[in-house]
Q: What sequence folds into this?
């Protein structure tokens, strides 16, 4: 039987998705990005609602569209607050755990 030599093997298996760079992402950075984008979107909805109120007061927008913008902003804000409350609750639960 002959001696078989294997040369030039990579140290890690090839990336199945064809990406270059590290395979692992930092989940904290992804979470921060999602949370930051959510806060920005809620802020934009609140600003749009304020703009709609001003437009309605000047007679440039009907009350129905202004109320829709106000409700969108209100619902977005309430959802963001519920997410925040759940995150705080989860954090408090983790802090109560004994190691």
A:
């Amino acid at each position: 039987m002959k001696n078989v030599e294997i040369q030039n093997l990579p140290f890690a298996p090839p990336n199945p998705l064809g990406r270059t760079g590290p395979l692992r992402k930092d989940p904290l950075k992804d979470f921060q990005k999602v949370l930051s984008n959510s806060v920005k979107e809620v802020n934009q909805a609140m600003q749009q609602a304020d703009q709609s109120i001003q437009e309605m007061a000047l007679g440039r927008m009907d009350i129905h569209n202004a109320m829709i913008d106000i409700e969108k902003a209100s619902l977005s804000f309430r959802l963001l607050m519920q997410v925040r409350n759940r995150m705080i609750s989860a954090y408090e639960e983790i802090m109560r755990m004994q190691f």
User: Anything to note?
Assistant: Residues 63-96 form the longest helix (34 residues). The mean pLDDT is 84. Helices lie at 27-57, 63-96. Residues 31-96 form one domain.
